[in-house]
Amino acid sequence: MVYAAYSAGRLLARGDVSTAVDHGLAILHFEQRLNIDFESPLNDIFTAHAAIGIPADFAYASLHYVLTPAILMWLWKRRKSSDYRFLRTWLLVSTIIGLIGFTLLPTCPPRLLEASHGFVDTMAQYGSYGWWGGDASAPRGLGGLTNQYAAMPSLHVGWALWCGIALWRHGRSVWAKIGAVGYPLVITIVVMGTANHYFLDAAAGAAAMGLGALLTGPALRLADTVRARLRPARETATAARTAGVPANVGDKCETSARERERIPRQQGGGADRRRKDGGADDGGRGAGAGAGGRSTTATGGTAPAAGDGAAAAAR
User: Fold this and answer.
1) Is the separation of the CB atoms in 53 and 126 below 8 Å?
2) Which regions form coiled coils (predicted)?
3) How far apart are CA 172 and CA 48, in angstroms?
4) The whole model's pTM is what?
């Protein structure tokens, strides 16, 4: 989801071509004055030697999209939730910083400058060996779905640096340590040798990751604050949905209480009817019973004897 938003943002951030070219030339001239335009000799090597240029093009077109989510899933599966949450948020915040850079500073990459500046687009040169076309790493026919002037900062380098730090901190084997150091270095060389980025683009990608790391802690605290404020609202909504619906135990208790109240009344009414019926049908026997030691009531029922006083009182 984050990458889809990032890609959509790159499309929305397409700037004026002339402005992007001016920014690219300004970066190149600044590097030349400081003798840090490492992309120029590297591009000459990649262009002259297909054994170097072709693997570099494959690395540029694929590793960015494969290794980053693979390492993210590995962290989710193997590491503590707090470690995963920090690294995931760091990647998100840094990507947003990169998107801001694309928006504010559209930059023409070296490969799209005029040929007089000496750069060759190796991905176009070796395009017959891969799935990409002349539009950076986009597959053939899909060049319109990418922003070719989103060169500053280089998130290829930024995400590779994130992968390297994650492997260094949480990898256990020697190979993990080697990959942690080698992968960011290889990607940095690849993005310059293929003429997709200037050296300062790569440096800006590393700086974006550094700034993202500093902002990750505040971002996590903000997320915790928002979650804490939303939790009472969710609990209130849940209570409102369940209001008026008694729990299972409550249902049984209420039913039992009603039954205990209803059954004695039914029993009492039945006893009254029997006493009335007894007075009408057994009047003669009432006198005989009185002679036998029990006195009769006016309705024909039998009054308890003296020995039955305690039981009657108890009832």
Assistant:
1) yes
2) none
3) 39
4) 0.69
